[in-house]
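Hi V.,

You were right to ask for the full record rather than a summary. Here it is.
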Amino acid sequence: MDEFKLLEKIQSIDSLFDELGERKANLPETERLELLRTDLANLKGILGEKENRLKEESLKQKKLEGELELLSAKIKNEEKKLYGGAIRDPKELLNLQEEVRALCKHKDELETDLLEQLDLVENLTGEVKDLSDQVESLRTEEGKAEKEHKEVLAEIETKLTELNREREGTISGISDQLLELYGKLRGKIGGVVVVGVEEGICQGCRTELPAEEVDKMIHSNKLWRCSHCRRIIVRWWGR
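Predicted structure:
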């Protein structure tokens, strides 16, 4: 096989390299995994905030319960004094009654606050539970997505390795000069730089070439390049 045919094969291999590279850079599996990771990070942030809020409100609840316990003990103690018979002075008894009444009123207020706090803590506990379940669900989904992503990447890497092996086996039959030209054109133009001419038209830039130039190509085995786009021409079909 002449080196022009081998170069055409190299071009085909490199085009596959380009396609696989483009696919690798734009995998829907990558986008899905990144979205899941972003959603998971955001949800974990919300969960963290809710957990902190729950801790704060639980502390408030314990504080109210402590205050209520102390107040109940105080009221019990004052009522014991009030109804124990040890105090006989009417004024002192009246003052103690007022104090007990005020303490009971404060107790009622604390109990109302505590009930509201209990409802708040219960609601927050439910929200934290729901968010925790969502986080676990997203983690599971992320794990599956990550596995799929790795499998697709592994498949692409396997194909790239096979292509590289095939390229290495082909490239040895091509001269350094031709390979250097090919490399420069790939760097300058990119994409396909090894083309054919069909019906006098360059299949790279779609420009019609002069008839005498095409005739010379047909009757010569030397290196030809498109006079317009400078791509390497390796095949041609009549006019």
